[in-house]
Amino acid sequence: MPVPQPVRAKSLLRANLEKPRGGVLLQSRMPNIKVFSGTSHPDLAQRIVDRLGIDIGKVVTKKFSNLETCVEIGESVRGEDVYIIQSGSGEINDNLMELLIMINACKIASASRVTAVIPCFPYARQDKKDKVGDGGDGGEKSDSTKTRFIMKSNEWKFRSRAPISAKLVANMLSVAGADHIITMDLHASQIQGFFDIPVDNLYAEPAVLKWIKENIVEWRNSIIVSPDAGGAKRVTSIADRLNVEFALIHKERKKANEVASMVLVGDVKDRVAILVDDMADTCGTICHAAEKLLEAGATKVYAILTHGIFSGPAISRINNACFEAVVVTNTIPQDGHMKDCPKIQCIDVSMMFAEAVRRTHNGESVSYLFSNVPY
């Protein structure tokens, strides 16, 4: 039976593409790359495209009078490999909605693949149902003994009503049309399991190690400290690679953003203490931890954080605290924070995202970036 002409032509094309020539298996052309930026962190996006040696894509973002977000992609993305850079900072809800609209706009414009590059993943702290006693009333508690008793006796009810918002965000990104996610230092690695699409969770650890060796003269006499038990794996990894010891601080919270008590586990006497955490919001935890470390005999205290959110009283707390330096990456814009607080220093991680984009576009492994800084 004769093969229909379109099928025969298609099979011949596939045969020509897959036919080895000179020992090399030819592949079909990979679509061109387009990188677009949201409004949350244009500086990081510009650094990424500068390193890639391409121009940033044209996109117009505006708001209607009723504050609805409108996004217009200013160039063709048909058959292209699209990357959209948008961090979870500033006006988080507006930025998240903008990202979703940009993903959907590219998807329905026939983009070959849409990758969301989210340096700081929004709602990452709401990853499980563990909000004990602070879910039913917005986190505020009455001073009355009666109210505290009721809160405690109904503890399980508050926990059962806590949302898992990180899972919701994952669903929204998938439904919008994202094919791939690139992010950095998720608050909990298990968030990757919320997605049914590939997620590359990069680590700031290689850049942090480089900064420590270049900027802390006494790093060989240092001790890496986690401000909570949840970050123990992170600090042990850094301590092992520096060949130094580690310690951790056990904390108990009365309510969100308020630390009740701290217990130091480890010996920091006559050593340089380096606090390491994935993010700092109001900075109550790290400032209390710094005081605890000095009381325990540490000579100097540094804080190194991947995501410096610095909301509310954070800047004034850091200015009044005993840090030699508070080091953050530029997953979130830090220019304003650095002007208000001279202790804040910034590590540029744009090269890691640029290399992740390049390797993803070329179909290469990104595992090299988990332990190395690209130059």
Describe the structure concisely for a colleague.
Helix content is 34%, strand content 23%. It is of the alpha/beta class and 375 residues long.
Fill in the keyword field for this structure.
single chain; alpha/beta; 5-stranded parallel sheet; disordered N terminus; 375 residues
Structural overview:
There is one protein chain. The protein is α/β, with parallel strands linked by helices and 375 residues long. The strands form three sheets. Strands 10-9-8-11-12-13-14 form a seven-stranded mixed sheet. It has a five-stranded parallel sheet with strand order 1-4-5-6-7, with helices on both faces. It has a two-stranded antiparallel sheet with strand order 2-3. Helix 2 packs across helix 12. It is globular.
Topology:
Blueprint: H1 5-18, E1 33-37, H2 42-52, E2 59-63, E3 69-73, E4 81-85, H3 92-108, E5 113-118, H4 145-153, H5 155-160, H6 165-176, E6 180-184, E7 199-202, H7 205-215, E8 222-226, H8 232-242, E9 245-255, E10 258-265, E11 272-280, H9 284-295, E12 300-308, H10 314-320, E13 325-329, H11 335-340, E14 344-347, H12 350-361
Helix pairs in contact: 2-12
Portion in beta strands: 15-25%
**Major pleated sheet:** 7 strands, mixed
Low-confidence stretches: 1-31, 133-153
Q: Based on helices, strands and strand pairing, what is the structural class?
A: alpha/beta
Radius of gyration, in angstroms, nearest whole number? 24 Å
Strand count: 14
How would you name the oligomeric state of the polypeptide chains in this document? Answer: single chain
Instruction: Give the fraction of residues assigned to helices.
Output: 25-40%
Number of helices: 12
How far the N terminus sits from the C terminus, by CA atoms, comes to 59 Å
Shape: globular
What is the ordering of alpha helices and beta strands?
HEHEEEHEHHHEEHEHEEEHEHEHEH
- What's the overall average pLDDT, rounded? 84
**Side-by-side strand order of the widest sheet:** 10-9-8-11-12-13-14
